[in-house]
Amino acid sequence: MASGFWGKKIGMTQFFKGDKAVPATAIDPSNWVVTQIKTDDKDGYQAVQVGYVKDRHQADFSKEKTSEWLKSAKRYFAFLKEIKVAGEGLEVGDSFNWASLVQDGSYVDVFGRSIGKGYAGGMKRHGFKGGRGSHGDKLGRKPGSMGFMRKQGRVIKGKKLPGHAGYLNTCVKSLEILKFDPVANVVLVKGAVPGKSGSLLFVRNQG
Fold this sequence. Notes:
By secondary structure, the protein is mainly β. The protein has 4 helices and 11 strands; from the N terminus they run E-E-E-H-E-H-H-E-E-E-H-E-E-E-E. A hairpin with a 4-residue loop joins strand 9 and strand 10.
């Protein structure tokens, strides 16, 4: 059984659970094709490599064409990713069956890359409070003291300073699957997940 599946974030919406509106994230797990099978004998581990068919080639996809597409994978596939499997009966060219891995009410961990926010100061990047707003404040939005080794020409490693904010690999654990529709190729997960609309996500089964 596969450990999870890859998908693209569609965006956020709300889901009515009884008489309550619950925030939810919609994920599209479709258009992933098995491109390679990893085995213990050949590769030293068990996994399946899947490729996401580019939008302009999705209408042309068929199992017969996959072997030809693999000769120039960058042309036909936007992403190539691996998923750990255990005794999965898959063949190259099959559409990855994500629907067998999820069910309503189960819990998953979602991995993704957070939204990049460019170069940011200490207050935005680390949530610093900043100096007081009156009585001759001179700190402003500066990060403050560099530490007790500053006179030696050194700044302590790990000091929180301005720099590139966001765009980090992030995991949100124990999110409930509110609903999945294998016909519409949509999975609704409770709450927010990393990334912006269109970003890549990995949904891992718990246990």
